[in-house]
Design goal:
The complex is a heterodimer. By secondary structure, chain A is of the alpha+beta class. Chain A has five helices and twelve strands. In chain B, helix 1 crosses helix 2.
Chain lengths: 235, 182
């Protein structure tokens, strides 16, 4: 190599460049943040598309959506006129009863139960992809507890008439209380598996978010009792 | 400065599949050369750091288009260099890079290397001053080629220039420098 080039290389080795900053951690943090943000946007868009599609698929709801709520895996629409519905069991659409272990394996989701549940431990569990549920007995009344993963498109679509009271609830990171009136439920397990379960609910519904999971209690309990039960589950 | 992980292909494949830890290892392997390349082009450490970081993030997003088996370093440096140039352009300033020779020998070093010994301190300062006086395009080529140790092909790819252009710029720059060094 000619002397000049060799001299330049020698100088290059001695140059006083600023110290190289640590970039690995900051870069990884940025790309992971971006991935989470993109995933959240995709899930939100998918949920909105599904909710919109379902709304359009229900003739009576199509013309008269009054209010729209979205909380975790659950979308709630208040409509002027409900589609025809008949009363069905609380667990309709959730498949056959299973043992707790079978349900957790099937749903890929461990269930969180109330810590101070009265009576014998529950034995009837239900599972669908991303959803696990259990039928509880509280003060002698059946209460359905369902838990859903927010990162899966497994949602409960609820149509509530104008007679249903919808208000915030003080549980979890965000909670919603629905009381009175009739409801029509639609469960969506994955993008391709939509099941519309037409049912008249026996009672009221509490929905809340906690640590990336949506919880839903349904039964004939007051708001105070349902919130106390919810806090016993996720506090 | 250069550093090349032994299992680079494996890291790239894992990163392509979304493994952020594998990509972090690639960043560690190339952050030195990426930062210095950005420094040569942007002209200051703050812009260079931002350009290098942004470049790594953009390279992550573009990994799907990276051709398997192709050299990773020039592909990455081209993205970083583009970020650095954009930063300088948007700031509306000319790169004023004053490269300085380190003034002190590292402690514990008994004697200069044989390569260093043939250059007097005065020659070093004179030659460096002459490099700093070169036009931007020539100084960039000289800096990447000789100070950062990139091959001619890598310089061309990093700067998105034909190899012939790099050759001619290098030749013109060396011609000017020869006068200072003589």
């Amino acid at each position: 190599m000619p002397e000049l080039e060799r001299a330049l290389e020698t100088i290059g080795r001695e140059l006083d460049f600023p110290a190289t900053p640590e970039l690995g951690g900051p870069v990884r943090a940025r790309i992971e943040r971006r991935s989470q943000w993109r995933r959240a946007v995709l899930v939100a868009v998918a949920v909105l598309l599904v909710a919109f599609g379902i709304a359009l698929a229900v003739p009576d709801a199509r013309s008269a959506i009054l209010r729209f709520f979205h909380i975790g895996s659950v979308t709630v629409e208040q409509v002027e006129t409900l589609p025809p519905a008949r009363e069905r069991p609380l667990v309709a659409g959730l498949g056959p009863p299973r043992s707790r272990r079978d349900a957790e394996v099937s749903a890929h989701l461990p269930i969180v139960l109330p810590k101070n549940l009265e009576g014998p431990p529950p034995r009837r569990f239900y599972a669908q992809p991303g959803v696990i549920a259990v039928l509880l007995s509280v003060e002698g009344k059946p209460v359905l507890l369902a838990e859903m993963r927010d990162d899966q498109v497994s949602i409960v679509k609820k149509l509530a008439s104008g007679k249903t009271k919808v208000e915030p609830a003080g549980v979890g990171e965000y909670g919603l209380w629905l009381e009175g009136g009739d409801h029509v439920l639609t469960w969506q397990f994955g993008l391709a598996d939509t099941r519309q379960i037409r049912t008249r609910l026996a009672g009221n519904v509490l929905i809340w978010l906690k640590s990336g999971r949506t919880f839903r209690l349904e039964g004939a309990l007051s708001k105070e009792k349902m919130q106390a039960l919810a806090r016993d589950i996720t506090l | 400065v250069v550093g090349r992980p032994l299992d680079e292909d494996d890291l790239i494949q894992r990163a392509k599949r979304g493994d952020t830890h594998a990509y972090e290892e690639l960043v560690h392997a190339y952050q030195g050369i990426a930062f210095r390349t950005a420094y040569v082009l942007a002209g200051n450490a703050a812009d260079a750091e931002e350009a290098a970081q942004d470049g790594f993030v953009k390279a992550w997003r573009a990994l799907g288009r990276f051709r398997d088996g192709a050299p990773f370093r020039p592909w990455l440096l081209r993205i970083v260099a583009n970020e650095a140039r954009n930063r300088r352009r948007s700031a509306g300033r000319r790169a004023h890079l004053a490269l300085r020779a380190a003034t002190e020998q590292p402690s514990g070093e008994a004697a200069p290397s044989p390569e260093a010994a043939f250059l007097t301190s005065e020659q070093r300062q004179t030659l460096l001053a002459a490099v700093n006086e070169l036009p931007d395009d020539q100084r960039t080529v000289i800096s990447l080629r000789f100070f950062l140790g990139l091959s001619e092909q890598e310089v061309a790819e990093t700067l998105a220039l034909p190899t012939g252009t790099v050759k001619s710029r290098t030749a013109r720059a060396l011609e000017r420098l020869r006068d200072s060094y003589a």
